[in-house]
Amino acid sequence: MSRYYTFNAADAVEYARQFGGVDDPLSLITADEIGDGNLNLVFKIRDTQGISRVIVKQALPYVRCVGESWPLTIDRSRIEAETLIVHYEHCPQHTARVIHHDPELAVMVQEDLSDYEIWRGELVKGKYYPQAASQLGEYLAQSLFHTSDLYQNAEHKKSEVGRFLNPELCLITEDLFFTDPYIEHERNCYDAALQPTVDELRADISLRIAVGDLKQRFLSNAEALLHGDVHSGSIFVAEGRLKVIDAEFGFYGPIGFDPGSAMGNLLLNYCGLPGLVATREAADGREQRLQDLRDLWLSFSERFLQLARDKTQDLAFKIPGYAEHYLKHIWHDAVGYCGSELIRRTIGFSNVADLKNIADQEMRHECQRHALSLGQWLIITAPQIDDIEGLIARIRQNG
Ligand code: ADP
Ligand code: MG
Predict the structure, then answer these.
(1) What pLDDT was estimated at residue 66?
(2) What is 117-398's CATH superfamily?
(3) Which residue has the CA at smallest separation from atom 17 of ligand 1?
(4) Ligand 1 first shell, C-beta below 6 A
């Protein structure tokens, strides 16, 4: 018999008292359920002063935003905790710390990050965090390099691939990223005014073939332990600081998927800005997003290459030029996955505030069409885009 039961606030407080690692456990007295995510319960545990001290997060046996009609494995809680623990080992400064977790109860205690803000909310308001993108690049390089074949022993890696199979959550990505947006599906979500653009997208055979390739690599290329859901809603920022949370989609997949998803979210904001803030602010914000894109890729790629120079032991991978060669593949994948994130977040199941929040309907549709055409173009031309400056130049040309 499983010990699983759904926590209420009192259960969350009791759990935090036992496993929260605080010096004065009895001072923890209340829990507010603050989950704004799609999937799980998130409790903020406060002490007698009303100060929040730790977070208790529990997976429900279904997709929260849909209900019990969409069942979902609670093993995702183990995957989330174990992914964060591995990533924390390699990049503690940018990974949320898991203090305790219990796979059977599908629950974990995490450090409280209430003094940070969710990056997406800040981006939507037009607030710039100049260090965030390079810090995210650092997180991605550390977590992905250290779990890749360039660093891990091959035998150990195979057992890790098994530990992080995560088939149910991967299936969600496989469907929502690479299948649903390109067919008629009840999970898709967009205004009727976009239908002609969506029809054109679906009729574009070279796009569909390139998307097939992206899906095939997502299914088959177990390159490193991905976070699997690096969007700006899974990233906490504060002045000069950044922490990544919410790793329940973690699995061994193609390295380019994580930086590609992150780049896609920066570009969703780039597309939405003219509808979100005043004209002058939007122009400045767009320049900041392009700078973020550059900072993200340069910090990721430079750290990845430096780690390869310093730490790769495998004689086949150590030869001069190999890491650079491998990074080229990662780059082309990242550009493709970036494009697929743009499309699926515009017309698929999980829309984003960067576009959804645009009140003026005409303007919203214009920004959404921009996101779709940029996504389409990125996916098709990914193999020909050589580097980050080439990408930025082309984004500017696209309007
Ligand atoms: P889900 O898996 O359901 O998407 P998230 O991990 O994204 O849940 O958390 C939902 C929300 O709960 C976040 O947007 C954030 O506001 C809050 N939250 C999550 N983790 C923490 C944390 N460690 N510290 C403070 N707030 C958090
Ligand atoms: Mg979330």
Answers:
(1) 85
(2) Aminoglycoside phosphotransferase (APH), C-terminal lobe (3.90.1200.10)
(3) 35
(4) 34-40, 42, 55, 96, 110-114, 118, 234, 245-246, 248
